[in-house]
Specification:
This protein has 382 residues and is an alpha/beta fold. It is 38% helix and 9% strand. Strands 2-1-3-4-5 form a five-stranded parallel sheet. Strands 6-7 form a two-stranded antiparallel ribbon.
Length: 382
């Protein structure tokens, strides 16, 4: 006797007396019938269309790589500029609050100012440095000289081979530039420098006890120029970048402050010492700026033209300012003081234009003018 009815499936099964697996006896259900597989002839025999591979656009990998290279370049540049900006911000805070830095800057300016000019017996500033610090020294020498502060550059090695003669043993001021504070060339030169001359040290050290040059010469004027982090950490290489920027900025500040104390008008001495280039041309234009004044004369016209002719002349002397007026009666212009445009005897009446009246009013001492008869298109007074 059959225990179960036939099961619909994709194939025909012959039922036997073999019982189904135990899980069916436990209440399980057989799997649902499989879908009927369509015959092969039912498929569409038309060939598949080929993909348009010839129109396939390759991804713009090259363009993306180029854009990434550009962004990488700009990112590196912005990083360097931002690092330099941060270093300058830190050095500004240092000279705004640190006692040693402020005292060193004050003493450095005093040492330069006291030995310049006739009162300082025509002393000069001798700036010494080697390597990148030497280039900073040369730039500062140019800045000091343009601001009428006598300065010269001295290479430490050349100084040991005869150039020490550039130093006046009585009136000069010495300035050493070294980031490390222990440059071997400067340490070799240090014993040969006159200890009676004031010595300024532009270095990264902010405390005298950490600097080798200060330890060897305790009376050195310390002018700190530190950076907030090592250049190796900032850029992966110890090439002088942030350190030279900070040293140059502190040196420029020293030059500007000393020049303002030495000269009543720094702009005048700078213009005298810098006549060339675009800066010199701009300074010449700013020093010569005449205000032209225009005078106009009205003459009679011939019958054919019937117009006034105005001749203008430009004077290099600026017009005198009008007197101060504080009351309404001072602002009012009496009618008899306003010139009148009239034709000369024997000539036809004037045929005036607005330009004629404006020129005549501009030349008038009071700035006003009048016509003998009202004009339909112009007010009576201009």
């Amino acid at each position: 006797m059959v225990e179960h009815g036939p099961v619909h499936n994709s194939e025909v099964y012959v039922l036997s007396q073999t019982p189904f697996p135990n899980h069916l006896h436990r209440g399980g259900r057989p799997s649902p019938p499989s879908p009927i597989t369509p015959a092969e002839d039912d498929f569409c025999c038309s060939p598949l269309d080929k993909l348009p591979l010839q129109d396939f656009v390759e991804p713009a990998i090259a363009a993306c790589e180029e854009q990434l290279a550009v962004e990488s370049r700009l990112s590196g540049a912005v990083h360097l500029l931002n690092t330099a900006s941060t270093a300058l911000s830190c050095i500004t805070d240092l000279y705004s609050s640190d006692r040693i830095a402020r005292d060193g800057f004050h003493r450095a300016v005093d040492a330069i100012v006291r030995r310049q000019g006739d009162h300082g017996r025509n002393g000069k500033l001798v700036i010494i440095g080697v390597g990148k610090s030497g280039h900073i020294a040369k730039k500062l020498v140019a800045t000091f000289n343009s601001l009428a502060i006598q300065a010269v550059f001295l290479h430490p090695t050349e100084a040991l081979h005869g150039d020490l003669g550039q130093i006046n043993s009585r009136n000069d001021t010495l300035m050493l530039i070294t980031f490390s504070g222990k440059t071997p060339e400067l340490l070799l030169l240090l014993p040969h420098l006159d200890q009676s001359l004031p010595l300024i040290l532009l270095t990264s050290h902010t405390r005298p006890e950490t600097c080798e040059i200060v330890r060897q010469r305790p009376d050195t004027i310390l002018l700190p120029a530190p950076i907030h982090e090592p250049e190796t950490k900032s850029f992966g290489v110890s090439a002088p970048t942030t350190s030279t920027t900070v040293a140059l900025s502190v040196g420029d500040a020293l030059a500007m402050v000393a020049s303002h104390e030495l000269h009543p008008s720094v702009s005048k001495v700078f213009a005298k010492n810098h006549p060339g280039g675009a800066i010199g041309a701009a300074l010449r234009c700013s020093s010569v700026s005449p205000s032209p004044s225009i005078s106009s004369t009205t003459s009679g016209t011939t019958p054919s033209s019937s117009r006034t002719s105005s001749s203008m002349s430009i004077s290099s002397q600026p017009p005198s300012p009008p007197p101060a007026r504080h009351f309404l009666r001072d602002l009012a212009i009496p009618l008899h003081e306003i010139p009148c445009l009239e034709s000369q005897p024997g000539h036809e009446p004037l045929s005036l234009t607005a330009a004629d009246l404006l020129l005549a009013a501009y030349a008038s001492p009071s700035g006003w003018n009048q016509t003998p008869h009202p004009l339909p298109t112009l007010p009576f007074f201009i």
